[in-house]
Design a protein that fits this description.
- It contains eleven helices and four strands.
- By secondary structure, it is of the alpha+beta class.
- The protein folds into two domains: about 1-175, no CATH class; about 180-250, Alpha-Beta Plaits (2-Layer Sandwich).
- The radius of gyration is 23 Å and the shape is elongated.
- The two termini are about 25 Å apart.
């Protein structure tokens, strides 16, 4: 994340949104109008005080402590690592900077932490609603970009929207904890398959009696809903337990009702 800020973001004078973007915006305001160079780390630490409180209270202590480590280290590295230009093409900076930003945030999420700031808010909303909230954060970031456009011109602000959009969609593609997948499994080993589902995901399943129309053979069908992040490994385990199982995988738009969620701690 620090390398991304000091290369693609600074090369095109982008504002990446979130509290990182707000810190860079305030840095730019102080330098442009007062000729004062504020340290990025101090600003981002101050902005993250309230999100950290939200993390401790509503998300999880372990998750929040790991996130504090991420905020602290990335803040220092952003001030220490020298900036360098890879390209002056603003569209390349916006696209590849957005992808690299998404990769850094996703790595944090996979490790059970966040990059701080609005990530805490996105995780909090996702935990409460059971749906990905990154697109809502994108809408909020437009306010920061609108302010940047008024102060420093609309070119950088509009390219920053591309940066933020690419980053948001890439996170949605890579991090699927809050996406849901429905599995319909036709099998003759329903108890064995249910044990695989329960032991690997802690989710339940419902069994239906079925009859194949072609041969008239009787089968069982298990219905279960799991996190999309768990789906791939679960499908492989089911195939190992019953190589003849027929699995229909459906992306679920919304789940209403009780759904097991793993604790962040």
């Amino acid at each position: 994340m620090a390398v991304n800020i000091n290369t693609f973001v600074h090369s095109a004078n982008l504002f990446p949104g979130g509290f990182s973007g707000l810190a860079l915006l305030i840095q730019e305001v102080f330098f442009e109008f007062l000729k004062i160079k504020l340290p990025y780390s101090v600003l981002t630490y101050l902005f993250n005080i309230f999100p950290v409180i939200i993390g401790f209270r509503f998300i999880g202590k372990k998750f929040t402590i790991y996130s504090i480590v991420m905020i602290f280290v990335s803040g220092i590295l952003t001030d220490v690592i020298p900036g360098f230009n890879l390209t002056d093409d603003m569209i390349l900076c916006a696209v590849f900077g957005g992808i690299l930003n998404a990769v850094s945030i996703s790595l944090c999420l996979f490790a059970g932490s966040s990059s701080g700031g609005t990530d805490f808010i996105a995780i909090f909303l996702s935990e409460k609603t059971g749906r990905s909230a990154w697109n809502y954060i994108l809408a909020g970031n437009i306010c920061i970009l609108f302010t940047a456009g008024i102060l420093f011109g609309w070119t950088a602000a509009l390219y920053s929207i591309i940066f933020q959009y690419v980053s948001t969609q890439a996170i949605n593609l890579m991090y699927k904890k809050y996406a849901k997948t429905t599995l319909l499994i036709i099998t003759d080993n329903d108890e064995k398959i249910y044990h695989v589902i329960k032991s690997r995901t802690n989710h339940d399943a419902t069994v239906f009696d079925g009859k194949g129309c072609f041969r008239g053979a009787h089968h069982k069908m298990l219905y279960t809903v799991v996190s999309s992040q768990e789906s791939g490994a679960l499908e492989k385990a089911i195939r190992e337990a019953d190589p003849n199982a027929f699995i229909n995988v459906i992306q679920s738009k919304e789940i209403i009702g009780r759904f097991f969620k793993r604790s962040n701690d």
